[in-house]
Design a protein that fits this description.
By secondary structure, the protein is mainly β. The protein has one domain (2-166). Helix content is 12%, strand content 49%. It contains 2 helices and 11 strands; from the N terminus they run H-E-E-E-E-E-E-E-H-E-E-E-E. The strands form 2 sheets. It has a 6-stranded antiparallel beta sheet, with no helix packed on it. It has a 5-stranded antiparallel beta sheet with strand order 1-2-3-4-5. The chain starts with 6 loop residues before the first helix and ends with a strand.
């Protein structure tokens, strides 16, 4: 099965998850790296989900941001990708009780054209990050920067342990 070709990737991601580095120095900062992977059944197909990225936010300022979100199936892989070169903007939407940000594309059509995607999934793109304790929940609605895939993965990761949990 071709999915077995991705076994080294799974091992790399499992090791990478243990190397997670994150901190929140002040109330409106998030500094995190994540590398998550999970073998799952997706719509009846054996699949491997893989997400990796780097986030450095300081209030409404994006200091660094990139995220690759992939799904590998028996015969192919599909991906979504976003980074600072896509023209992203951040908004701190949290308060004293919770840390939360919304990332959006300033010009979704231009970002999509730049990446050469020809599937029409619409032009909306927002990604919410919410930190509760050591957990960061990633909730995307960004089909604009996906090729043949409908959206980025929704998941949570633990900033101390690097453990990840994908949402169904």
């Amino acid at each position: 099965m071709i999915l077995q070709q991705f076994m080294p990737l799974r091992m790399t991601i499992a090791v990478g998850a243990g190397l997670l580095v994150a901190s929140a120095a002040t109330a409106q900062q998030l500094d995190a790296r994540f590398a998550c992977g999970e073998r799952r059944d997706d719509q009846g197909l054996a699949s491997f989900f893989a997400d990796s990225g780097r986030i450095r936010l300081n209030g409404d300022k994006i200091e660094e941001f990139n995220w690759e979100s992939s799904v590998f199936r028996g015969m192919h892989g599909v991906e979504c990708s976003i980074d600072t070169d896509d023209g992203v903007a951040a908004e701190f939407i949290g308060d004293d009780q919770r840390l939360a940000w919304r990332i959006r594309l300033q010009d979704p059509a231009a970002a999509r054209d730049k990446r050469g995607y020809d599937f029409s999934h619409g032009l909306n793109c927002t990604i919410r990050f919410e930190r509760v304790g050591d957990m960061v929940h990633v909730n995307p609605s960004c089909p604009a920067l996906c090729g043949s895939r409908q959206n980025f993965s929704e998941f949570s990761f633990d900033m101390k342990t690097g453990k990840c949990r994908y949402e169904d």
